[in-house]
Design goal:
single chain; 334 residues; alpha/beta; 2 domains; six-stranded mixed β-sheet; four-stranded antiparallel β-sheet; 16 strands
Length: 334
């Protein structure tokens, strides 16, 4: 477990982390989100004992990282964005070196090496030079070194950067398995990765915690307006007559085409109501064919942009999201 209380870090006149407080419990994977310069790396360096704080307290399993550094650091495994690998060594030589540096006892060293190599799937390349490994295997070796000594806390900084799609899936599955009996903090700019891997999200901006909770909780908390995208085979007037009397329906924007179809944007004022059924029944009662009906509300990407919009930073979702403005469709890369 990690407990952070009123953590502050200043560099001269610049404040990198300001009054940051949160708790990360065991058995969960936490996504650490924020735009560049938000204070993520500074915070992680403090949590791992690599950097002193200006003020505040950090405890790892009850040990203060500043007053009891040896005990606290022994419970933390860290993978920075650039894995600290010695490429002239074999995987086994490198992991043995790191284990000794971490103070793993000689009697337990071989057993610990086999454990981390098995967990991370690098046993088959144990005798190969690290320089000859693929990027995916190097990331696995980096995670393996973080697991040496069996720490209760794992901190991973952008662990899937530069990997191909198959490698990303494999590393994500590995991270999920690590979170079953440890505290895992994962820093990433890829919001789809956070949604796929993390149990909870810690979002920081300008060194402050601006949101925390499960991805679903954040999406619900910042949902705002819920909109339905509907395509029907009917004219605008006919559609409006069918929907305007439905409880919970707000503004209706229509866009007909030459094929007798009409695209709708229907704003909902009662998000608690079962609008899927209400809209479907209202249209079917008028014998209007429904070709498409989709519900839209805030995603984790929308939450991120809303909370960090002044930072000029956009998350990577790997897809284009369609937005409607004034009845026109607008595409923007998110």
């Amino acid at each position: 477990m990690i407990q952070v209380s009123h953590l502050t870090k200043r560099y001269g006149d610049r404040t990198a982390v300001e009054d940051l407080t949160f708790t990360a419990e065991s058995g969960l994977v936490y996504g650490f989100l924020g735009p560049n310069g938000a204070g993520k790396t500074t915070t992680m360096n403090i949590l791992t004992g690599c950097l002193a704080a200006t003020a505040g307290q950090v405890t790892i399993d009850g040990f203060d990282i500043f007053d009891q550094p040896a005990q606290a650091k022994a419970r933390v495994g860290y993978l920075p964005e650039q894995p600290p690998l010695y490429t002239g060594m074999t995987v086994r030589e490198y992991l043995s070196f790191v284990a000794r540096a971490k103070g793993v006892k000689v009697a337990a060293l071989d057993q610990d090496l086999e454990r981390v190599m098995t967990v991370t799937g690098v046993t088959d390349v144990a005798e190969r030079l690290i320089r000859n490994l693929s990027k995916g295997y190097r990331q696995r070796v980096g995670i393996a070194q973080a697991l040496l000594g069996d720490p209760s806390v794992i901190i991973l900084d952008e662990p899937t950067v530069g990997l191909d799609p198959l490698q990303i899936v494999e590393i994500r599955e590995l991270i999920r398995s690590l979170g079953k009996d440890r505290t895992v903090i994962l820093s990433s700019h890829i919001l789809s990765e956070v949604q796929a891997v993390c149990d909870r999200v810690l979002m920081i901006h300008r060194g402050r915690l601006v949101a925390s909770g499960t991805p679903a909780e954040l999406e619900s908390q910042f949902a705002g307006k819920i909109t339905y995208r509907v395509t029907v085979k009917a004219g605008p007037l006919e559609v409006r007559e069918a929907l305007e009397t439905v409880p919970g329906v707000g503004e209706i924007l229509t866009r007909p085409d030459d094929a007798g179809r009409c695209a709708l944007e229907v704003s909902v004022t009662d998000p608690a109501g079962d609008m899927d059924e209400k809209l479907s029944f209202a249209l079917s009662d008028k014998r209007i064919p429904v070709l498409r009906l989709e519900r839209e509300q805030a995603s984790l990407e929308d939450v991120f942009l809303a909370l960090t919009k002044d930072a000029g930073e956009q998350p990577e979702s790997g897809k284009k999201k369609r937005r409607w403005r004034g009845g026109r469709r607008h595409e923007s890369d998110l």
